[in-house]
From TrEMBL:
Signal sequence segment: 1-23
InterPro entries with a match to the protein in the record: DUF1838
Record-given protein name: DUF1838 domain-containing protein
One Pfam family per UniProt: DUF1838
Keywords assigned: Signal
Amino acid sequence: MRNMLKHVALTSSALAFIMGAPAAARTLDPEKPEDALEIMKRTQCGTADGVPAVYHWSGRVYSRVQGEPDRLLFNGEGMNIRQCVRIEDPKRGVGYRQVSREVMFYLDPKTNEVLRTWDNPWTGETVKVMQIANDPVNSRPNYPYSADGKPYKISTLRRQGKWMFMPFEVPLFYHNVLAGDYQDYVGNKYHAMEIFDFAFLADEMLDTRNPTAYPTISWVRISDWMPWMKMRGRQGQMVFNAMGAKLKSYDELPKVIKDEIALNYPEYTAPPPGDDPRKNETTWTVFKKMIDAERAAEKEKK
């Protein structure tokens, strides 16, 4: 009986290997909608559906004010933890949904410690620093075909030797929750530009024997002042510039990030649930909720 079971086990293992061999040897073709979607999924997601993936970035934050030199305001350390889940549509095919939450901490550019307060050099006021902590930051479902049958394509993807590059520019211009109801007439809309540049080894990405890929990323954001800075409409912008990569585990994050998450953001050690129905948060929506709660608390005291 033992020998027979051993023979069955060996036969099953051999059969599994033979059946899996063609898929294991496949090379993704970016021109095929299903493969293009898989390339994007391998860029964004973990080693399997439901397995968390972590992106880390590190950089600097500058001011840009007309008529004066740019100033280094902060160092920055950030991370995004996400998971992807499989979704199906009878017309659009098999796709995925990505759910995530992210933090970025403003650090003193001299000591590299997380800042709790900041001395505003333009107003002379000391203000409380509100770190970037957005939960959730979820993406729309992605499929190999759109609702009208248009095939999925990564229009910016290009190959150069052993490398593949995938840049994205995201112009943002939308309703500012901190402004009034007449933004089309008097301004104050949220206006920013975010730039994401992914780079990865072609062999790692395209070979399906690898469960995922580990791209590097550069991130640039040009935006208005953060609301917690209390700039009172002062002319100027912020320029964020950072680089990083997708990590193989949460433990690879820098100590300063893990320590701050453990202290103040414990939920950021895991992504949201795959069926998370919440609306996305931004610094502006989070800040509004914080100010509204503080004002309500003050009102209760009176």
